[in-house]
Automatic annotation (TrEMBL):
It comes from the Eukaryota. Belongs to the amidase family. InterPro entries: Amidase_CS, Amidase_dom, AS_sf. Residues 21-187 form the Amidase domain. It holds the Pfam family Amidase. This is Amidase 1 isoform X3.
Amino acid sequence: MAKTSESGAFVEKFILQPTSSSQQLPLSGLTFAVKDIIYMLKHGNRFDVDGYVTGFGNPDWKRTHSAATLTAPAVLDVLEGGATCVGKTIMDEMAYCINGENIHYGTPTNPCAPDRVPGGSSSGSAVAVGAGLVDFSLGSDTGGSVRVPASYCGILGFRPSHDAISTSGVIPMAQSFDTVGWFARDPTVLNRVGRALLHLPNVNPVTPSQIFIPEDCFSLSSIPSARTTGVLIKSIEKLVGGSILKHVNLGDYVKEKVPSLHHFMAKGNDHAYNIPSLAALSSSMRLLQRCEFKKNHAEWLTTVNPNLGPRLSKRIWDAVRSPEENIGICRSVQTELRAALTDLLKDEGILVLPTVPLPEYPDSVR
């Protein structure tokens, strides 16, 4: 299927009006798009009517599933805030990639670098915002699917804390990590949308108590430190002063505070840019993600045997066939890591991390 016009961001265009016409609502006058992983009903004048079929990035999924019977709470929140939805956006199939490609519907065009991939899996949502087609958009983030396309497309992306926003009405990828996130070009819009989704009052921002910069993580970036940590440090010093800046070696801290990681480090897992403890953390996360994805979708995959893109097919089928081992250890890693980061950051600390080690990947590197 050929991708649609408008930077190839949309899989389906329509208009879904806000639930109130009041001009006093916080999101009045704003338009948004929704990733094709989120359930929505068509709204009539007074009642919800037939729902849209959520496609999960794959025509066979759309063909074998019924129309939505509910609208996701996250969509209702922004509709009730006064925003207007204009369509559903393209995504990586089954949310199982970070590049933003889709062989069925086309790869959305990165508005910042048309010869580069847009990042995924919320690729269409990021492109719709980056290309100025909507004011904001909703996506989902399991392992970077809002943060990465936001980075590649030169816009703002926000992944909230896990469970901070309801994922009801969102097709699960891996529940331990799934979140609803959002994109915007304007930080003011990002803030307004976030307050609607998180049900937060309009209060003054809180000054962070400490800002941690993990030098080992930034050293992995291909971008010179003068353009990353150097700019960051100068900005922080200008805004709040340099006294709250702290430098940390995150790999060493995680290794010390998350002892269950030794189960993964013992396998020689040092491939993640030579920070062994973070490589082990990545392995633990991916193992748990595969296990949950398998429980969610193995039955459908084996029954339907859908047409999957060649780059994704092996990854998805490997997940379906993977043994369920060390899952208890993965849960221990999760618990220990949460405690470690809570102890490090307290209530008002910030840990600054690079989103990706490289700029956008070129079309030839997929």
